[in-house]
Amino acid sequence: ARPIRLTDYRAPDFVIPETRLAFDLHPTQTQVKATYRIERRGAADAPLVLLGERLILKTLRLDGVEVAPEAYALTPECLTLSGVPDRFTLEIDVEINPQDNKMLEGLYMSSGRYCTQCEAEGFRKIVYFPDRPDVLSKYTVRLRAPKAGFPRLLSNGNLIDSGEEGTFHYAVWEDPFPKPAYLFALVAGELDVLEDRFVTMSGRTVDLKIFVDPGMSARAAYAMDALKRSMRWDEETYGREYDLHLFMIVAVRDFNFGAMENKGLNIFNASLLLADAQTATDLDYERIESVVAHEYFHNWSGNRVTCRDWFQLCLKEGLTVFRDQSFSGDQRGHAVQRIKDVKMLRARQFPEDAGPLAHPVRPAAYLKIDNFYTATIYEKGAEIVGMLKTVVGAETYRRALDHYFETHDGTAATLEDFLSSFEAVTGQDFSPWLKWYVQAGTPVLSLSATYDGDTQRLTLTVSQMTPPTPAQAHKAPVPIPVRLGLLSGAGAPLSFRFAGETVPEALFVLTEARAQWVLEDVTEAPVISALRGFSAPVKLTLTEPEAHRFARFRGDPDPFNRWEAAQSLAKALILDPHGAAADYAEALRATLTDPTLDAAFKALMTGLPTEMDLAQSLTPVDPAFIHTRRKAFKAELAAALKTDAEALYAALPAETTFSPDAASAGRRALRNALLDLIVAAPDSDADRSEATSDQAGAQAVRRPEGEAPLERDAAKPLSAKQKIAKAHYHDARNMTDMMAGLSALSQIHGAAYQDALEDFYARFKSEPLVLDKWFAVQAACPHPETLSRVRRLITHPDFDRKVPNRWRAVAQAFAANNPAIFHDASGEGYAFIAEEILSVDRFNPMTAARLIEAFGGFKRYAEPHRGLMQAVLERILGTEGLSKNVAELAGKALA
Ligand code: B3K
Ligand code: ZN
Fold first, then answer.
1. How far does the chain reach from its first CA to its final CA, in angstroms?
2. Ligand number with the minimum distance to the CA of 182
3. Residue located nearest, by CA, to atom 4 of ligand 1
4. How would residue 684 be classed by pLDDT, with cut points 50, 70 and 90?
5. CA distances (Å), 641 to each of 9, 44, 450, 573, 582, in order?
6. pLDDT tens-digit profile of 432-445?
7. Mean pLDDT across the chain, nearest whole number?
8. 260 C-alpha to center of ligand 1: Å?
């Protein structure tokens, strides 16, 4: 297959100002009739090329006259008409089969309902069209279906007509805003609705409707609340008002990813929309809030101003992620939000940028654009917008964005257009920022300091280097904003003079490969607190005594750097085979007992770096060493803090009434983080007998299928921590606490865990979203027995590969969240995931391909992992009938 390249971009030869679609919905034989008004813009002899896949072409009429088969060319991917006039009307009738569509792209059925997913290239699976984002058209859509079973007929825009035809009915929708085909959507079926209203800043009333499975509308209340807050926030923060009279969201169970911003008709994965205390965790609430906001914000950043081509994907995604992160920060607190966002960036984007799948935020070529909905495009893209805001300041940023939205409204724009808006309002040159978009790799920022006590001068020498990445050997410097402050040796803030002013901190921007910054009036040899708030997505190296990190851990006024200091200390101590936890425990004790810090922040401070985080700091990666060392360090930390943790835990009783607000969620997060620490403590002498359960589990891997787990053979008394975890689970009044209890039990393993799993299943077997959690917790359990358990889980009657949520609950949870077992030296974990990828690739390549990432960094691993992972990738790549999606990623991973 030939890659698509950015440099090959050509403006379309034809535009389609008007599109009329008529759907006669049928599970296996849906008839689609399209009528386009077409105008030539390119060369007089350019043929009209329409894209279409898996369509049965019925008729083709040009200006009302049937086109003879010899006048057009048809291939499995396109329909070409030569010698067409400069202006004409084209009518196309096709037939499609939604029920057979298990790739969940185009028009498909989910739980007996019709729904669509068009981004990026799904519209061509509905009807022939120039399916590219720079062809914007005004849509009028007629839907027709039996009244029975399909009482709701929804599409984009406003409902302009509806009526009945015997046992059938129809609805006609008109979207007044020209849009690219990827934003088209329809939904038909039986749905309950939760309704509300929003009055916009100019006084227009917008009807808000959230459609869900019958009986579930109460669970949409939180999403509705989040939607109204998002609408208000975008008005207040960006001056962006909603533009239609109606805004609809539909929840579906079968969805390849999170949600989709179709104009006026967002479609969501039900897992990111439905919530109540009994079925959703605080993390679910948090994600619902941010995804509802994200999709809503796309109405401006993505829909009103869209992308010229898919290479500009980050124009809408990076900007919209930055907007949703700012929103969440305003709703829930910026310090905690920033830490969570950076954790996510480091967990997903940094490894991507350091491995064979590294690509620029604006890639130069692709085989399947689906493969580029990556952490780099989304998260690194958001970081670039954040840096721009940091350097120009909040007020100028707002003016630049106003300029961007006003200048490009109704058009398909590029990243250059985005940067020119900053140039327009500042008069400065922003072209150096383009390097962030076109260069892959995470820059390394090195900092060293010399202090002269006589002159009270601190000289900082800074330099940057971006490592080579595939197809990019040499990198130019990028602009790096560095927020920096100083602390005294005792950990108190230390002001200094810079550029003639005495300041508590300063913002420097490194634009060259190296620079020196001189800080004056520095009254003592300071502790440096650099890159505050993680002011740039770089890896900072700063050689300094351990005591400096402890000083920041204890008292950096910048909460991000306080957390960062703790994390970097923990990382160093865990990876050092002799690292001891005593000092770390002291500093954490001070944090946990500090009354000025909020609970959510303390919860984050209590969490140690994950095994995935640690893997990034060790070459070659030895997953078993990381697992063992982390467990040992955590046990030592937990033992040192046992009394405090238990007292703090007891002082935070479970709340009897549930509120999803940030403060309540923060208290639950802290209580659950304490539980996690408590169960990590080694057993006391009285509980020693329990220690055998680990060994029993290890043997269980080799136990013949169907035999009862060994640990259940003998009824052993529960250890003290098992009792705590068990009580936590059974006393839980909400899903957050229940899952925390279950996951604590999974860490200890043993009979109490198995009992809780059975109890959980019995309670929630008819709640698919909750059952996903039941599968996921088992797949992520770091006990060796999990290797055989995942094989049993895929034979469970509730397991279904065709439902992406359920499949990910096992496959993704295992491959991404269970490094110790996924990387088992036997290679069984790799083999399991390879088989899963290949099974799902047969019908849903987009979803299957995402799991290739699990093998992406194989070259960084020690043997036998490296060789085993390589063999698995080779086996995948050598499989006959492999999709383009999986082939592209597996091929790159091996290159
Ligand atoms: N724009 C969609 C993502 C589409 C993914 C297609 N493979 C959701 C979002 O980012 O808001
Ligand atoms: Zn998005």
1. 16
2. 1
3. 119
4. confident
5. 60, 78, 37, 17, 9
6. 999 999 999 999 99
7. 96
8. 6
Tokens, residue 355: 């491995």
Q: Is any ligand 1 atom within 6 A of the Cβ of residue 440?
A: no
646 labelled catalytic: no
Is the CB–ligand 1 distance for residue 550 below 6 Å?
no
Q: Which residue has the tokens 């989040």?
A: 226
| pLDDT of residue 554 exceeding 70 | yes
Write a three-state SS string for 551-600. Answer: HHHHHCCCHHHHHHHHHHHHHHHHHCCCCCCHHHHHHHHHHHCCCCCCHH
Model confidence pLDDT, tens digit, residues 49-82: 999 999 999 999 999 999 999 999 999 999 999 9
Helices 381-392 and 394-408, interaxial angle, to 10°?
120
Residue closest via CA to ligand 1's atom 7 equals 370
What's the pLDDT score for residue 705? 44
C-beta of residue 144 within 8 angstroms of C-beta of residue 24: yes
For 565-618, what is each residue's pLDDT tens digit? 999 999 999 999 999 999 999 999 999 999 999 999 999 999 999 999 999 999
Question: From the CB of 294, is ligand 1 less than 6 Å away?
Answer: yes
**C-beta of 295 in contact with ligand 1 (< 6 A):** yes
CB of 404 within 8 A of CB of 43?
Answer: no
Asked if ipTM goes beyond 0.90, one says: yes
Instruction: State in Å: Cα 246 to ligand 2 middle.
Output: 20
Protein residue whose Cα sits closest to atom 1 of ligand 1:
260
> Which of 124, 261, 846, when mutated, tests ligand 1's pocket best, judged by the most ligand atoms within 8 Å of its CB?
261
Question: Which residue has a Cα nearest atom 10 of ligand 1?
Answer: 317
324 CA distance to ligand 1 centroid (A)? 14
Residues in contact with 223: Cβ distance below 8 Å, sequence separation at least 6, in sequence order = 210, 249, 268, 273, 274, 275, 288, 292
Q: Is the CB of 120 under 6 A from ligand 1?
A: yes
Ligand minimally distant from the alpha carbon of residue 262: 1
What does the pLDDT average to over 149-153? 98
Structure confidence at residue 706 as a pLDDT band (50, 70, 90): very low
| Burial classification of residue 125, based on how many CB atoms lie within 10 Å of its CB (0-12 exposed, 13-18 middle, 19 or more buried) | buried
Cβ(257) – ligand 1 distance below 6 Å: yes
**Atom 2 of ligand 1, residue of closest alpha carbon:** 260
- Per-residue pLDDT of 246-256, as tens digits, reads 999 999 999 99
Q: Is the CB of 373 under 6 A from ligand 1?
A: yes
Cβ atoms of residues 175 and 261 within 8 Å:
no
Protein residue closest via CA to atom 3 of ligand 1: 260
pLDDT at 690: 45
Residue 235's pLDDT is what?
99
Task: State whether the beta carbon of 121 lies less than 6 angstroms from ligand 1.
Answer: no
b (16+ CB within 10 A) / e for 267-306: bbbbbbbbbbbbbbbbebbbbbbbbbbbbbbbbbbbbbbb
Rounded distance from Cα 266 to ligand 1 centre (Å): 11
Of the candidates 295, 352, 564, 611, the residue annotated as catalytic is 295
Which pLDDT does position 653 carry in this prediction?
87
Q: Is the Cβ atom of 415 under 6 angstroms away from ligand 1?
A: no
Six token digits for residue 197: 């209203």
Q: Ligand 1: distance of its center to the CA of 119 in Å?
A: 7
How would you label 618-632 residue by residue, b for 16+ Cβ within 10 Å and e otherwise? beebbbeebbebbbe
Contact (Cβ atoms closer than 8 angstroms) between residue 820 and residue 625: no
Structure tokens that stand for 715 in this block: 């009824």
Look at residue 697 in the predicted model and tell me its pLDDT: 40
Non-local CB neighbours of 266 within 8 Å, separated by 6+ positions: 247, 248, 249, 250, 259, 260, 295, 296
CA–centroid distance, residue 386 to ligand 1 (Å): 21
Report pLDDT digits (tens) over 475-516: 999 999 999 999 999 999 999 999 999 999 999 999 999 999
